[in-house]
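Q: what sequence does this backbone want?
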């Protein structure tokens, strides 16, 4: 078994980097081979652009999807994209480790999706959802927030963190992953008053221990439910009898 841990945090001494390292240590302890990719440390360029494609299908106009598919067919994908694709294809478990910034993942992680989930080999009109290229593989979002768990709850001032993560989870499902319920660590702060530092550090140590305990049982980690293709009439609209699993895809009369 093999795992890929993708870290998206600019500070190598951050708690996110610590969680990525601890996850790698735990999974290796459990006999998995582990690859760790630090997007900031390797200087990953998150901007999909014509300059990445050396052999263009349309030199006069840049169409990202067409150029990605052309590059894949010609064996001329950018070297960094090709390396990340190979790591994805080899992995049984993929962990995305990142902080929540402005109610979303850092831009570098969105750019990773834009460039690495390549049109053609990773998805097309027939190769997606439960039939996706990554079917049989599992993906986990391990996420930190600065606000408390109460503030990030469904009735909290910061909004429901799990709901904020749904578009990213759906993107992973789109290419076929079984998506695990996200692992959230709230209240990760810096610049605290001296009298609060010890309690904060103890809470993060306990959170790290709990994360390792959960990872030791990752094959039994609960998954996020999604609608399969058969739940949609003409492949487009959710059938009246189908279960709605998220406010993002719901019945029209559900409010």
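A:
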């Amino acid at each position: 078994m093999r795992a890929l841990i993708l870290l998206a945090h600019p500070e190598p001494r951050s708690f996110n980097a610590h969680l990525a390292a601890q996850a790698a240590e735990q999974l290796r302890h459990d006999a998995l081979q582990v690859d760790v990719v630090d997007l900031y440390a390797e200087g990953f360029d998150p901007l999909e652009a014509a300059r990445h494609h050396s052999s263009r299908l349309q030199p006069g106009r840049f169409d990202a999807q067409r150029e990605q598919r052309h590059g894949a067919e010609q064996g001329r994908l950018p070297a960094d994209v090709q390396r990340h694709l190979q790591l994805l294809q080899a992995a049984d478990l993929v962990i995305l480790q990142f902080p929540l910034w402005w109610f979303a993942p850092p831009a570098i992680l969105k750019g990773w999706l834009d460039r690495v989930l390549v049109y053609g080999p990773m998805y097309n009109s027939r190769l997606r959802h439960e039939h996706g290229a990554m079917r049989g593989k599992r993906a986990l979002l391990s996420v930190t927030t600065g606000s408390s768990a109460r503030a990030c709850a469904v009735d909290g001032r910061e909004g429901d963190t799990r709901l904020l993560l749904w578009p990213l989870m759906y993107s992973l499902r789109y290419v076929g992953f079984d998506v695990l319920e996200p692992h959230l660590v709230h209240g990760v702060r810096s610049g605290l008053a001296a009298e609060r530092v010890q309690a904060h550090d103890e809470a993060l140590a306990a959170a790290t221990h709990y994360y390792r305990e959960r990872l030791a049982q990752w094959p039994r980690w609960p998954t996020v439910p999604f609608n399969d293709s058969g739940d949609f009439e003409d492949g487009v609209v959710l059938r009246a009898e189908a279960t709605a699993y998220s406010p993002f895809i719901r019945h029209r009369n559900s409010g």
